[in-house]
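lol ok so funny story. i was supposed to be doing the assay writeup but got distracted and ended up predicting the structure for this chain instead. priorities right. anyway since i did it might as well share w the group, maybe its usefull for someone
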Amino acid sequence: MKIWSILAGASLSAVALAAPAVVHAQDNSGEIIVTAQRRPERLQNVPVSVTAVSSDILKSRGLNDLTQMVLAAPSLQSGADNNFSVRGVGTSAFSNSIESSVAYAQDEVNLTNAGLVYSFFDLAQVEVLNGPQGLLFGRNASAGLVNVSSAKAQLGKTSGQFDLELDRRPTAANDSYGIVARGAINVPLGQTVALRLAGFNEYQTPLVNFSGPLNPGVGNELNLRRFGLRASLLFKPNEAFSLYVLGDVGQDRGVLGLFDTTYRSLGAGSLNAAPLAATGITASPGNLTLAGNRGYYRDLDRNGLQAKASYLFDNGIEISNIAAWKGFTRKQQLDTDGTGSNGADINASSTSFNQYSNELRIALPGENRLSGQAGLYVFRSTLKETGQIAGNNYFPSFLLPSYPFCVGATAVSGAFPPTCSVSNNYFLGFDRVVRQTNDGLAGFGQLTYKVTDALQFIGGARVTRDIVSIRLVQNQQHYFVPFGVVEPGRSERVANTNFSYKLGAQYNLSRDLMAYGTYGRGYKGPGFNNNEVSTSASLAIKPETNENVEIGIKTSWLARRLTVNISAFSSNFSNYQVQSFDLTTSSFVTQNAATVKSKGAELSVTARPVPGLTISANATLLDSKFGNFPGAQCYPGQGCSTFNAAGRATPLAPKFTGTVDVNYEFNTAHTVRPFIGANFYHRSSMNFTTQPYPGTTYGQSNIWGGTIGLKADNWRASIFCKNCSDQRVPGSLGLESGDGNSGIATVTQRYGMNSFRTIGLQLGFNF
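and the output, tada:
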């Protein structure tokens, strides 16, 4: 009752401080339109739990990427290394050799690596689809899907838009500032061709301070620079045929929110205590200072090209084909120990990733008694990655060439101590070269049959064939303490065939009252552990499956001025793919948890009691736990190496999350109209790691936001506030692996742009 009282109070108090009206993709009657089933449909008629957020509301609230999107979608949570969960289930791993349980699709193409994901610009809307969605959306979406739709080129219309955002955040000793510029132009090239060009450029100054002088030639890009360009061309010579071609290019520079890790607490006897003290850093929740003597940078370049050809026959049947290539290259380095001394100064990698996909689909008319779609999907990805973690464990340099460390020593054949007979490159470390290919082939279909005008049955299936191969070379350099085994070259191949499906029924009592129930099986394909900890154990990670039951009701009242949607779900995951730190081998390992059980309920309410006023509330009540996980890794100090984590909450799974938005636009006789608004986000306590250490759990979050401004038909100006009370909610918490090797529990933290009060100015115009 306390939670609901908070939300109710937020709703009432926010009426006096409303935000700009939420505008989603709409049909002529003002209904919200989503593509949760790969075709435009009324949200109130789709038998799927969906949160849809328009481009306008994303911009007005300053939600510029997926990590900030969590403030508008209660079922979505984010953690370290661009990991996300939906309904408490995701893939808490930073490995490139497995895909995420929460899939990401943009413009009908699944992007299977986080390196392919852009910041938000020139969008139509973003949809968070809860539950397994892989049947219709290409690949691995066993937990859910983020579905992003870009604004499309339009025939016969010259138009454009531009918006500018200026931000200020009170971070460390100096405030952090940011600027985001976005623009788009649509140009007709004759009567049958249209071109749309869109782009953005963003710069954010660092959230953390750097302690100590920079060494010559060592760069620290603790800021963030991002830009992207997208060009789309529509060719539509008649009503039947269309060709849509889209190309994009982009860059990310800097480590803000990703590698700018600081120390939150030190375990007793921490190896990092003296080096931190020497650089003037005190571990605490408010610590926003790090150090390093090997640099921090992240250079990522993206490219992509896709084309969709569609033909609509006179009988309403449509055939379409989408071919796509997406790729990125990335070079990055972080000083792992975060101090001015050499504990583990090197954590560097170079990655190249490319994916190719083709989907052929045939769709039946939506208004027919029998409707639906079927298709064939072909996929291939190639991953090339080299990486190394290395350092001297804080030992003085004069000791390292001596026995027994022998770091940088000259090898003496047959020598006996105290003379070194070996020569190590570093005191401790790990290196690898990974080559991986992933081939997939699938046939799918989903049909809906209307038994009566009110009752319809849903049936769908997908047969998937995955073939994944890896080549791993590991620890070819020499370390006094190596992480993992020495592997001159190991190749493995795994293949799997899966049958996933969906069955359900939908009953429309009226246009304003619909109930549904579905039962389905989601699937996420096999992968590999890219760190070999045993010469006898396989690198393969088993496929993950999800048996999901969902029931829901969608209602509209008072001439659609009030909508209330409720859903309840229960998901049982088998062979859940998860990553944790293995104390025995001092390595991060990916493994299969036996089972995970996730159940809960979701509520969405939208009210428009008077013209100009919109009140929206969304909530997720969740219980997500490991059902059986006998091989879970213990945290330092737990007194074990592994244990059964049955009954413990999964990472990124708060019991309750809720949002409230209140929007009011004044109705005046003038062309210039004022607007004012507020929003509120509440999240109960949440653990960030698989290992159940209390220090990696953060208590409840209460984040307020608001905006005030003026708008006319072709321009808009506003001042906004995010996290107005400046609650320092970390973007992630984790156990520091260096101390973990010694059985000491030290906690590190990363803060993101949601973590600080942000005051901003927005200007925009369109023509």
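The longest helix spans residues 2-14. The CA atoms of residues 398 and 407 lie 10 Å apart.
back to the writeup now i swear
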